[in-house]
Amino acid sequence: MKFAILSFTIFGGDFFLKTYMERHLKGGEEKEICRGRILLRRHHNSGMALNMLKNCRTALKIICGSMLLLLGSLWFIFLGRKENSGILLGLSLLLGGGASNFYDRISRGYVIDYFSFCTPFRWLNQIVFNISDLCIFAGAILGIWNCERG
Length: 150
What we know:
This protein is an alpha+beta fold. It has one domain (2-120, 128-149). Helix content is 61%, strand content 13%.
């Protein structure tokens, strides 16, 4: 049950943040937070990471929907096994983040990204993320790491 709650919390929390940013942050506007370490800015991403496949929206929706079905199936398979809690945690993060971004793709036609990190690396500063992106990344790392351990 806790893994399902985690996925729904990620989906709901990021949905709230995306909606808030859409309503309160104008396009091109930027706000620094966390002592200038994070930059809030609204960005519409028509593709996936770094706008890849932005001109193939239908294919991207099919790919993302298929991946969510596969991850959801794996999540149910591992749900009853206590020894796989690390994998289940990773899958829960992937599902919550993936579902939130997929919902954006289906309902809006793009994913709302809203923050960047301020680092010494110029290329990294230009990438705009959302909470779901971080959950997807963390979930993939956790899942892979726990598969290797088990």
